[in-house]
Design goal:
Cofactor: Mg(2+)
CATH architecture of the largest domain: Alpha-Beta Complex
Shape: globular
CATH superfamily of the largest domain: Nucleoside Triphosphate Pyrophosphohydrolase
Largest sheet: 4 strands, mixed
Distance between the termini: 35 Å
Number of domains: 2
GO cellular component, one term: cytosol
Family: Belongs to the Nudix hydrolase family.
Protein name: ADP compounds hydrolase NudE
Keywords: Hydrolase
CATH topology of the largest domain: Nucleoside Triphosphate Pyrophosphohydrolase
Radius of gyration: 19 Å
Strand order of the largest sheet: 7-4-9-8
Strand content: 35-45%
CATH class of the largest domain: Alpha Beta
Number of strands: 10
Helix content: 10-25%
């Protein structure tokens, strides 16, 4: 039986860098065994984010290809975005779906909440599957139109082999969808 760990005591924290999107904090910690260390962490807005796995039907997914500044290339993945102030995760998922792929969903189902690099980043992402889609668009904030890509679920091994389908959150969302569908059968 494992003993529950006591989280370290925060001795101090200070902002060491800041941009319009994030803040980097240096955090001085004291662990239960007396060891002291300084960690750096990125603090997000605290609102969280959403990712949506749109299903056009029981066999077909809808993905997007968009520019990813971190790797300076285009990446294939699922629609996603930040939760706006005052929105629930479900409302944000519906809005992002309409902005990024031009659909709303009559059947939005929560799959899981993901941590994003929890050693360094405090943000979490709620992942949803969207079924029973209907056409509805909202203006988005992307600098260019997003490429929509359909993919058959029975060809998921080829999707996983695509060099531009490498974002861990999208891969996790796909695997959670497949597990979820297996449980529904």
């Amino acid at each position: 039986m494992s003993k529950e760990k006591q989280v370290p005591q925060i001795l101090s924290r200070r902002v060491v860098a800041q941009s319009r999107l994030m803040r980097v904090e240096a955090v001085d910690l004291k662990f239960s065994n007396g060891e002291q260390r300084q960690f750096e962490r990125m603090k997000g807005s605290g609102r969280g984010a959403v990712m949506i796995v749109p299903c056009l039907d029981d066999e077909t997914l809808l993905l997007i290809r968009e520019y990813a500044a971190g790797v300076h290339d285009y990446q294939l993945g699922f629609p996603k975005g930040l939760i706006d102030a005052g929105e629930t995760p479900e409302e944000a998922a519906q809005r992002e779906l309409k902005e990024e792929v031009g659909y709303g969903s009559h059947q939005l189902e929560f799959l899981m909440e993901l941590s994003l690099a929890p050693q360094f980043f405090s943000a979490k992402m709620s992942v949803f599957v969207a079924r029973d889609l209907y056409p509805e668009s909202l203006p988005g904030d992307e600098p260019e139109p997003l490429e929509k890509v359909t993919w058959r679920l029975d060809d998921m091994n080829n999707l996983l082999a695509q060099p531009d389908f490498s974002e861990a959150r999208s891969v996790a969302a796909l695997l959670m969808l497949l597990r979820n569908q297996g449980e529904r059968r």
